[in-house]
Amino acid sequence: MKISRRIFLGQTLYLSTLALSGCIVTPMLFKDHQSIEKIVSVLISTDTNKAHLVVVTTDWHYIFDTPSRVVEALKAPHHSVAIELKYLHIRNSGVVLLNYSLMMPPFTGEDNNKQVPDGYIVDKESGNFIWNGFMEGKRYAPSNILIPSELAFVNKLDEIHVSSEQSNTEKAVKLPLTPITIAADGVVLIGMLPLALLWAIVATNGRP
Predict the structure, then answer these.
(1) How far apart are CA 12 and CA 68, in angstroms?
(2) CA gap 50, 120 in Å, rounded
(3) Which of 20, 96, 159, 175 has the most Cβ atoms closer than 10 angstroms to its Cβ?
(4) How many structural domains are present in the chain?
(5) Cα(44)–Cα(71) distance, rounded to whole angstroms?
(6) Do 170 and 67 belong together in one domain?
(7) Phi and psi for 178 in degrees, rounded to 5?
(8) Beta partners for 157?
């Protein structure tokens, strides 16, 4: 009986050790994959009603449904608003999240007495007004589409951090081809909507 008891206790301890080690190893096996992609261009559709933000990297096209608030802020003539692209996160479902910030400089002169814009916070270091948010979108294969040089960041390729959730099943996912096309006159289109270069941008190698 004593021998059997020792064997039983030994097996129990061994199995418990395996279970604990499994708990430790499993998260490591499925940790998000981290990478850096170079941005070739950032484009925005000119139609406010169906706005899309397009991030073109050397590998992929990322297309996001853009909130009207973002479009209105970037197109406002009386404010110098920039958008900072912080990072991309790709879910197992295929949905891509773009973490971004809108940055507005502090008021000066006659505008100095104005209140902080609704939804913005004040950055203590710079004094800028900051709006943080996410856009949802998808990733597409570029299909040999070459962005015209006048719409590309020719002199400087910015970088963006990308994290991808790791699946517990090994399966290759074929991405759809990009809906972006180039007309005969060189205009870049998404569907029937023309895209324009977004100049008010500060792309950084941010991390989630």
Answers:
(1) 60
(2) 24
(3) 96
(4) 2
(5) 8
(6) yes
(7) -60, 140
(8) none
Q: Across-strand partners of 56?
A: 41, 61
Asked whether the beta carbons of 135 and 65 are under 8 A apart, the reply is yes
Which residue is listed with tokens 């301890």?
13
27, 168 Cβ separation under 8 angstroms? no
Q: What single-letter amino acid sits at 157?
A: L
Beta bridge partners of 136: 97
Same-domain status, 94 and 22:
no
Q: Are residues 57 and 20 in the same domain?
A: no
Residue 62: pLDDT band with limits 50, 70, 90 = very high
Q: Is residue 196 part of a domain?
A: yes
Residue 118 has pLDDT above 90, yes or no: no
DSSP collapsed to 3 states, 17-64: HHHHHHHHHHHHHCCCEEEEEEEEEEEEECCHHHCEEEEEECCCEEEE
Q: Contact, 142 vs 179, CB < 8 A?
A: no
> What's the pTM value of the predicted model, to 2 decimals?
0.75
C-alpha closest to that of 52 among 61, 141, 101, 35:
61
Which amino acid is residue 12, in one-letter code? Answer: T
For tokens 């449904």, name the residue: 65
Amino acid at position 165, single letter: E
User: Given pLDDT bands bounded at 50, 70 and 90, which one contains residue 11?
Assistant: very low
Q: Whats the size of the chain, residue-wise? A: 208
Task: Find residue 163's DSSP bridge partners.
Answer: 34, 89
